[in-house]
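sanity check both lines:
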Amino acid sequence: MKIASIATILFGSAAAFTATTPFHHETSAVSNTFLKAVELTPEPEGGGELTKVSETSLPGSRMKNMGLVEEDNSDGDIYNFWLTAVAKGDEIKKLRIQTEKEASKKANFPGFRKGQIPPYAQPKMTMFAIQEAVIKTCEASLEAYGLQSLQGSQGEVNVNEDMQEVCKGYKLGNDIPFTATYKGKFDAAVQAASEEGHDTAAMEDVVVDVEAVAE
């Protein structure tokens, strides 16, 4: 399972925020559970709903195959995928604490004692924590739905909601629902294992039915 190659996520208008991943503005929207008067970007029409490899993985998420992008007979076809998922509040909070702890080791702002983070820098650290939580959630979606990410710019993930707007009304610890699109491939090994599991379950059902008839 190739997960680490999701190295670029594009969302919001946060390009001015220095982090490990560049961002790009798309649509301003997010769940009104924590930010009033805005909603998630509407689900695109069409596409085929994917089934999770494991029912317990990435709860609350959905994934749709929006169609073939490019045929690749040597290494698997490339498809467009649409994801709706939730970046968990406890994960965001943990990342926010880690970020502030690391930042305080190097912090040396004029007018503030060494190690102190000024108020104007706090939102940037929250933004970083949200960004990292979204990245982790998108990475988890690959495993949850038996997919492989792509290398380089092809592996970019577009998050449709404006995360700068999200940050303005965000309360630390709250979940953040979001939608995203990315290109990827089906992981052949995972898909084969999943199909084998379904076949085994079907055979067991037939055996049970036969036994019931025999009785």
